[in-house]
Structure formats: structure tokens, C-alpha cells
Amino acid sequence: MLDLHSHILPDVDDGPSTMEESVEMALIAYEDGTRTIVATPHNRDVNERSSISAVISLLYQLNQEIQARSMSLKIILGMENHLEMDTPEQVAQGKALPIDGTHYILIELPFEFYPFYAEEVLFKLQISGLRPIVVHPERNLAIQGNSEILANLVNRGVLTQITAGSISGALGKDYQKTAKELLQQNLVHIIASDCHTSRGVRTPILSPGVTAAAKVVGDEAARKMVEDIPQAILQDKMPDLDLPSITSKRKWWNFRP
Ligand SMILES: [Fe+2]
Question: Which listed residue, 29, 35, 197, 220, has the most CB atoms within 10 A of its CB?
């Protein structure tokens, strides 16, 4: 499996605080069957509290620790980028990063509301050649009440990633209900761990989420969300995707949630 969203680097954001815990998280992921992890620290934390060069150095150290333990596991560089009005400018300045030099970029919506500028920012990223992946849409309050908001984005070429702990139920019933609904409507392309710790409900374990998703979309479609689709993304190819089963009735230029 490939995990496109993780907070596994130590002392960068709200992930682990020590390299020991990062290594422990890598071991947990490896035992669960993950072979590639994209380390995706929050762009705000990297730019305000650290730097991209410091993150690259931590990534190197973590890969050295993994190799020293003979694990066939690779950690590569990405970033979880908050959706902000100036996100396209942050990309141009190298402050918001796509995944490992590809054209795919993780974008996080606020939890409490759906910003009026979301479509415009995502569209600007698209016309600059990037392909946004909206992370954990099931955690956004507006999308929880109206999945048409997400269908509108998916119909315009935006990809989505749900969190394994959301669909398995580990993160609570509200997230699980929305994650299930989004899966039923073919509005999910990727399952990732969004891990933060080696213990509790935010560990780097994907398989319970894949098993739960398989009950909704079938084994093959759930497997693709942690194998074929993330693999294609890391190769900077266009993944083979199913179309959403619901469409947005409103045009994007006058869309209001
Ligand atoms: Fe995250």
C-alpha cells in the first residue's frame, strides 16, 4: 500500500515529537503492509516554525533509520497545504509544495466552513498545471451536510482523499457517516492514514479503513484507493477514475454552498 498523507516527521507540526516515535510509526505502517509513505507536514508549520531544507534533512534521517532496520519502506516528501486565498502564490514561491515533484498537491479545507474562494483557488491551481487533491473532505462541516459541494469539485477534476480512521469509525460516527456517503457517491479516490502518532486513533494503519471501504465499494475499488491510484499519482500519471454518481446542478461560477 501507499500512504499519501502522513504527519510522520518529528517536531515539525502536530505529528510526533521525537525521531524514535517517527521510527515507531514507520514500523507500524510497514507491518500493516505500507511500502511508501508521503510525509506531509502542514505548510504553515514548515514555513513559520521550520524550513523546507530542515524537513528534507529530517526525511533523510528517517529514511536512514528505516534502512538500518532493513525495512523495505520509503518516505518521500509532500506537504499538506491549507486552502488560502494566496495558495497559488505560495506554490509559486515554493512555500506550498506538491507531492514529490509531481503535479498533484494536497489541499486541506477548513473544518468549520466552506470558503467562498475555494473554487477560485482550486481553479487557479488547475490552470497553473496542478491537480489538487482535497484531503479528508468528510471533516468539513458544509460537506457533511451537502456532498454536492464535493461533487462540484470532483466534476471539475479535483481528486479527494478520505482518512482510513474516518471510514473505519475510529474517528467518530459523524466522519464515518460522511465518508460512507462520499464513497457511495463515487466521490473518493484515495484512502490515506493522516497519521500523527504511534498510539491511539491516529496511527499509520490503513487496513481497517480499506476493509470498511470495501464493504461500501467492493474489494477491488477499495484496494485501488491505496494501491493503483496513489501509485499513478506518485508516477505523475493520470489515474483511472470512476465518475461520480451524483452531479452538481449548479454551475461552479455561481455556486454557493
Ligand atoms: Fe493531515
Answer: 29
Please count the other Cβ atoms lying within 10 Å of the Cβ belonging to residue 62. Answer: 22
Reported as a single tens digit per residue, the pLDDT across 163-216 is 999 999 999 999 999 999 999 999 999 999 999 999 999 999 999 999 999 999
d(CA 93, CA 66): 32
Question: What is the span of the domain harbouring residue 66?
Answer: 2-242
What are φ and ψ of residue 228, in 5° steps? -55, -45
C-alpha to C-alpha distance for 181 and 188, rounded to whole angstroms? 10
Ligand 1 centre to CA of 249 (Å) is 31
| Distance from Cα 196 to the centre of ligand 1, integer Å | 8
**Residue 3 main-chain phi, psi, to 5 deg:** -115, 105
pLDDT, position 248: 55
Q: What is the CATH number of the domain that holds 44?
A: 3.20.20.140
238: Cβ contacts below 8 Å, ≥ 6 apart: 232
Q: How far is the CA of 251 from the centre of ligand 1 (A)?
A: 30
Domain assignment present for residue 191? The answer is yes
Other beta carbons less than 10 A from residue 68's beta carbon:
9
CA 51 – ligand 1 centroid, Å: 18
pLDDT tens for 5-63 read: 999 999 999 999 999 999 999 999 999 999 999 999 999 999 999 999 999 999 999 99
Residue 88 CA to ligand 1 center (angstroms) comes to: 19
DSSP calls for 99-110: STTSSEEEEE--
- Ligand 1: centre distance to CA 109 (Å): 11
All 3 cell numbers of residue 127?
490552470
Total domains in the chain come to 1
Cα(90) to ligand 1 centroid in Å equals 18
